[in-house]
Amino acid sequence: MQMKNDLLIRAARGEKTDRTPVWLMRQAGRILPEYRAVRSKLNGFIDLVKNPELAAEVTIQPVDILDVDAAIIFSDILVVPEAMGLPYEMIEKKGPIFPNTIQKEEDIDKLRVFDPKSELNYVLEAIKITKKELNGRVPLIGFAGAPWTIFSYMVEGSGSKTFSKARKMLYTQPALSHQLLQMITDSTVHYLRAQIASGADLVQIFDSWAGILSPEQYDEFALKYIDQICDAINEVPVTVFAKGAYFAREKMGGLNCETIGLDWNMDIEESRKLIGDSKTLQGNLDPCALYGSFKEIERSTKNMLDDFGTTRHIANLGHGVYPDVDPEKVKCFVQTVKEYSSK
Ligand SMILES: Cc1c2[nH]c(c1CCC(=O)O)Cc1[nH]c(c(CCC(=O)O)c1C)Cc1[nH]c(c(CCC(=O)O)c1C)Cc1[nH]c(c(C)c1CCC(=O)O)C2
């Protein structure tokens, strides 16, 4: 099917576009009252993730309401550990918890590299419904967590400031760590391929906890596995977003992917130099900038656009949008990108 707005895909591939495409990480859910209305019909977040019809509905809300150039499927990175045999719970106002965690060899023996068509069919169904309802309006982004970030939750059992249990395992049980990371990697490749077969037009890998590793450890325990995923996925453009991995930018320029996401700590000009001209860059306005006045948002968004230039850029925030941001401020960001980059 011909896509009506394919700016995201064209920008990812480095083709010329009439303006810079824009979307926001974590745009589905969180900020919209319309999302909370849908969510309140169910018992909780996980029920919504597992309900393909409603997941499709909240995936499309930001396209209708915020006028962004892409939809991202409403799901979570933690569906992968669950499908591997480690279920999670989502505690209101606190975040995810894993009742069981991975500490030793016997824990890994109980896990499986799963078949996404059975274990994660609810995500694939949500993608199919979303594609049908979007009817080619904008591309649909699929996603997964990077192996290191998924490993962190599986070992730590919850969010953490330091993830010291997860990092401890890299020092005390490196072979076991590699075994688990490889299992997550293999599962993720199957899962992303299934998302693409179901209709995802681009996929993004979120390495949210990249920034807590040393550069050497990031090479050994994180980038190596992202590299495998990028090599395995060739059907659609791939975006790698490694939050805080400023030290790995030069190496990320060598990944077999189309786009590298930047967080707001990363200098744009320096990132372009380190990563090179063969990648599209995505980002990187500070999510907190959206708490500023409309005038300030316009100013900082225009500055960002000036720094990135008009080619090989996908406008976004430097991390997910925060839950209490006023949707009108998000619209201001989106409209500023659209208008200013058209000139
Ligand atoms: C680390 C991580 C998680 N999940 C995700 C990441 C990587 C991105 C990042 O670094 O922000 C990714 C994610 N989670 C969700 C999406 C949906 C698509 C989107 O809008 O981008 C995506 C892409 C829905 C969600 N995932 C979650 C919510 C909020 C749950 C609710 O509605 O109650 C949503 C809409 C819950 C979640 N899920 C996770 C946490 C830590 C939490 C609790 C705190 C929070 O809200 O971020 C794990």
Automatic annotation (TrEMBL):
Pathway: Porphyrin-containing compound metabolism; protoporphyrin-IX biosynthesis; coproporphyrinogen-III from 5-aminolevulinate: step 4/4. It is an enzyme of class 4 (lyase). Substrate binds at R26, Q27, A28, G29, R30, D76, Y153, S208, H319. GO terms for molecular function: uroporphyrinogen decarboxylase activity. Its EC number is 4.1.1.37. Catalyzes the decarboxylation of four acetate groups of uroporphyrinogen-III to yield coproporphyrinogen-III. This is Uroporphyrinogen decarboxylase. The gene is hemE.
